[in-house]
Give the backbone structure.
Amino acid sequence: MYVRVVTSKQGNKTYRSVQFVESYRDAEKGGAPRTRVLLHLGNVDDLSGAKVDRLVDGLLRAVGRPVAAASTEADVPVALDFGNVWAIVGIWQQLRIGTILKEKARTSQREFDLEQHVRLMVINRLCDPRSKLGLLAWLEGVWVPGVDRGAVTYDNLLRAIDFLIEQKQEIEKEVFASVRTLFDEELDMVFYDLTSSYFEDDRSVTEEDVRKYGYSRDHRRDRRQIVIGMVTTTDGIPIAHHVFPGNTLDRKTVEGVVKDLTERLGLSKVTFVGDRGCLSAANREAIREARMDYLIAHPLRKDADSKDLLETCEKSLQEARKQGRQIVLAAGKYAERPDDHFAVAYDPEIAETSRENRERRLEKADAAIEEILARLRKAQDPTVRTRGRKLTPAGAQLKIHDYLRDHEIGRLYDVQLDAGLPLGFSVTANATVRAFEEKIDGILIVESSRSDLTATQMIERYKSLAEIERSWRALKSTLRLRPVYHWTEKRIRAHVFICVLALTVERVMRKKLSSIKTSVPAALERLERIRVGRATVGRETVPFLTNVSKPARECYEKLGVSIPKVSDVAELVTARL
């Protein structure tokens, strides 16, 4: 006797039923083997685990064999991180990024789930940034609803980023449209800033490579780099980003960025806010031609306009310095640019911070210079024996020059070669430059084409540019833009795009969590404690979800994400872990 499953079709439907059957030999047919049905148990789908267990137990009792006792211990083979992933997926859905990617991939003829792979890379950036190979290892410890782990491969991750960068222009545009829809806020100003990101080696560098040597905001002049320009909202949510060769000057990027904002993203009648590196006559004209206004800071060094403005406001600034108080001055207009307005601000706290930072750098520089000079004196002393090549005046002067250059304080010193001096050169403080640096500590000068803003409003609006600085810090620290594990331009750009998509999710989360004063890393760490898995109790395998604490519930509510339930992870019972 044995169990047999019989399959039958009726129209378009297929039915599977369970039967108890036995084999016998039919004497009337000369002992031919035959099968007869002893019991028909019905449709397979109607037989639950509990029904089968009762049937088995009944048969055991009928033949006098002991029935297996129901186990009260749960076998939990693994618990997976889930709460943080659930929150990120919720924001991903609110921004419709998955829907956008699926629509773009519909005609791509790719045989894998492209959206799923991009989603995983963005989630990984926010939870535990790793390389593409590292992501596969990370995936073993987390549960992402709807993801088939067996279909996630290294090659498919690379194919996904290749597709992503090919569709960058349209995807970025539609994601920003979703951001505007989500918050339903008027876009009055856009903020533009640049940063750089360096590479650890020169692998596969070509003559036309985007990786170039240039001004490094990371103070790594010895490394090739790329320059990244990003336009954001007041809250630091990305609108668009651009990757430039590493030797690109800030002011050379503005015209193309403004053109992109108007032609691709359809933005006009907004105010373009940029730092002092964006200021030039050509850029002002380009912004005006795009029917935008501008609010741009002025460089304080080697700028004729700034020099004139500081002289005009000198009396008021001196009084503010003596009294240690903030001041904002409406600095009027210039005859050369009658439509522009200027504001000058002084902040004593920023001035004190700048002064302390400069003095600390000068103290270190003085010590480094004295060490080099001591080595030179020792090399020139005929009574002292030294090993190796002796330091020469030219070599010492070069070392000092390199130190001052690398620490960006060369202007604060005068280094003069003079064969008539005991050491062959002199290093002295540049008193004129240092006095000027003290004079501009805490000073901010901005220029705007908007006549409806007061001087105070101009300064306040410009200071919102600090939000994009926070975005850069998040991009480089939390999301680990660096190191980049790609060496072709296309994939370098794709990696940056993945990081910017992750930043978009992070900034949206930050905005939603602002009312409870919880940072995104802190919220994700709290939610990470919510884990899921499956447990076997007796003969039954069930999914489980650890408790959702009150603080975690508050995070979900502020994010607008539903609080997870066991039913949300029911697929864990049959999933491949």
